[in-house]
Amino acid sequence: ESAMFQQFVTAESISADGHHVELAGNIGKPEDVDNILANGGDGIGLFRTEFLYMDRQELPSEEEQFTAYKTVLEKMGQKPTVVRTLDIGGDKELPYLKLEPEMNPFLGHRAIRLCLEQQDIFRTQLRALLRASVYGNLKIMFPMIATLDEFRKAKALLEEEKEKLFSEGIEVSSDIEIGMMVEIPSAALIADLFAKEADFLSIGTNDLIQYTLAADRMNEKVSYLYQPFHPAILRLVKMAIDAGHANGKWVGMCGEMAGDEIAIPILLALGLDEFSMSASSILRARAHISDLSKVELMQHLDKILSLSTSMEVEQYMKKLLNTNN
Length: 325
Ligand code: PEP
Ligand code: MG
Known about the structure:
Layout: E1 22-27, H1 33-38, E2 44-48, H2 62-76, E3 80-84, H3 111-117, H4 119-132, E4 137-142, H5 148-167, E5 177-182, H6 185-189, H7 191-197, E6 200-203, H8 205-212, H9 231-246, E7 250-253, H10 263-270, E8 274-277, H11 279-290, H12 294-298, H13 301-306, H14 310-324
Parallel strand pairs: 1-2, 1-8, 2-3, 3-4, 4-5, 5-6, 6-7, 7-8
Helix pairs in contact: 2-4, 3-4, 4-5, 7-9
The structure holds phosphoenolpyruvate and magnesium ion.
């Protein structure tokens, strides 16, 4: 099967009717970059940096992080590389931080919430990122943003660290895009406000689905509620994409949905700019997109968005994809 897609390693990510998208990869460790490049990734759409903090006894130093980010950026060259700041909490624990147990960890003190409180941890990461920025095409993204205040505070801390580095005479890239994940319903619902202040948005469907349907993404008992094609999810995704575009910003997706065969045509029709997925999904997605006509799919959008259940959307799409082949 991999041989079948080999021709797509060096191919452009382009639909049958000539619409360009970006097919990027998700990574957790610097060494994962090789696999993204071997699979023809146009960029990194999500570097989950928490893996640098896990399976160890203490926080990674600024120097250690700098080396990790520099390695990734150098390997990617001019290809866009979106690094997400620490997203710890929820299912991802750091025993050495001795965080208090919580009743509802997924609704608790995690990710940007923790970083804005434990600023020393956050600032160390931001410094490492800023120092590494001169080695490639860095974009920084904040996870679990629920309010504009959080996004502004995170940006302000980044700005402060940048100023400090300037005054120390350390070089920092002058064009680092700053974006955020849209993975909490509140963020999707006010994506128009966020899009004025962010350089890009990246939709995190893994959490967006969990929070929108109130169904723990780790709990098998409620996995039937984990519905990427639920009309509520499609509407939130559309809101985020439209809000980004109305403000001249690009919009990506780095949740599992971005690599889904049925979701891809819908996302293409909605105008998603960047699809970020596991390395092993990139070539299949590129082949799939090369067979799809964006303009044709757009003619089905109103119908798709008017359907009432996840099942109806899936059935409609399966039929549509079969008749096209
Ligand atoms: C997401 O929530 O969709 C996402 C990409 O982030 P993670 O899976 O790391 O929570
Ligand atoms: Mg998430």
